[in-house]
Each structure stands twice: as C-alpha cells, then as structure tokens.
Amino acid sequence: MTIDFYYTPGSAPCRAVLLAAKAVGVELNLKQIDLMKGEHLKPEYLKINPQHTVPTLVDNDLSLAESRAIMTYLASQYGKNDSLYPKEPKKRAIVDQRLYFDASTLYSRFADYFYPVIFAGAPYDAAKLNKLEDAFKVLDSFLDKSEYVAGDKLTLADLALLASVSTIEVAKIDLTPYPNVTKWFENVKKTAPGYDEANGKNVEHFKHMVEFLLKKK
C-alpha cells in the first residue's frame, strides 16, 4: 500500500505532516511539488486537489488537502495508540483547539505579517507584528501549567505548532519574551520523532528562500 504525499519542503504545513507521519510511524511516498514552476496548477494535480495547494495526501481512494486534516487522519487511521490524538472527547477538544489556533491565529498572523514583505516587497507593518506578538502571548499561556501545548504528552498540536514556530524563527522574531514557548520549543525539537529529517533540514529550504528574496528587495 502506497500513501502519496505531495509537498514543498519549505512549507510549514507540509513539514507538520511530515512530523506527524514520523510520530505515527507511517511511510509516505514523497512527491515534491515546485510551486515556482506552477506544478500545483497542472491538470493532473488539480484532479486530486482543486484548491491547488500543498500539502495533499492520497491514500487509495482518499484525496485530502489541509495539513491539519491530514495529520489527524494519519493519527486516527494508522496510529498504534491515541497518544498523539486522544479519543477522549475533552482531551481531543483541547488538541483540536490548539490545531485551530495554529492555523487561524499564530501561523495566519505570521503569514499576514511576513509574506507581503518577502513576496511583494511591502514594508514591515508594526500593527501586524503586534498581532503576531499577541498570538505568542496566548501560546505562552497555554504552556503555563503543562510541558506540551495540550497537556503532559506530545500531541499533533505540538507538531503543527513546532513547524510554525520554527518557520517564524527564520523571520528573526524574538522569542525571548515568551519563556514558556522558548522552553517548549527547545524540548519538543528533541522529543518529536524524526525532527531533523522531517523539519530540521527542510526548514533550511524556507530560510534559503527568504534570504534570496530579501536580497532582491
């Protein structure tokens, strides 16, 4: 059985799925998509993902976009236990909330702040930075009483946020005002299975792209 995974190495959502796959212990057949060449707009790709986004997972008759949906599917379908994505409703609700926070608040605010700068040459916007900093304050509060963002064990929420925070770090956002985040970040880089292969080396792709684009400004 082959599970195809269409991805771009520098993408935080793609790296979040790679981290989840490592943690679950499932092997993905990696198919790299070059966005700069428009490979995500080719008819054959649009057939499996009309949104023409990355990542996309194809598992037999299932074609699934949206990274956090892919992560929860992998854990539910292939996880040896429910530690990464608890079945107990209240525990799962906390993991889901943190995943939605990552998607709709932390990563969204980072993208709104940083991507116009590197892709469109826009100036840095202090108001957008303030919103991102507010998101980090919330994340810091999640870690006030627990080692991980959704409790005392590593979950999918940690892996999604790990991919996002490692990406945000490339933009030279200062994390020192958030001691809980800083401690968590260093810890989860060590405890996330396959971190270096799934995220560590791939975040370098994003870093090189940022350096290249900023030099062109």
Number of helices: 8
Corresponding CATH architecture of the largest domain: Up-down Bundle
Number of strands: 4
- CATH fold field value of the largest domain: Glutathione S-transferase Yfyf (Class Pi), Chain A, domain 2
Distance between the termini: 46 Å
- CATH C-level of the largest domain: Mainly Alpha
**Beta strand %:** 5-15%
Share of helix among residues? 55-70%
**How many whole angstroms does the radius of gyration measure?**
17 Å
Briefly note the structural class of the backbone. Answer: alpha+beta
Short summary:
By secondary structure, the protein is an alpha+beta fold. The chain has helices spanning 12-24, 43-48, 67-78, 89-120, 126-142, 156-170, 179-191, 195-215; strands at 3-7, 29-32, 56-59, 62-65.
Task: Describe the protein.
The protein has 217 residues and is an alpha+beta fold. It folds into 2 domains: 76 residues, Glutaredoxin, CATH 3.40.30; 127 residues, Glutathione S-transferase Yfyf (Class Pi), Chain A, domain 2 (Up-down Bundle). It contains 8 helices and 4 strands; from the N terminus they run βαβαββαααααα. The protein has a 4-stranded mixed β-sheet with strand order 2-1-3-4, with helices on one face. Helix 4 packs parallel to helix 6 and helix 6 runs parallel beside helix 8. The longest helix has 32 residues.
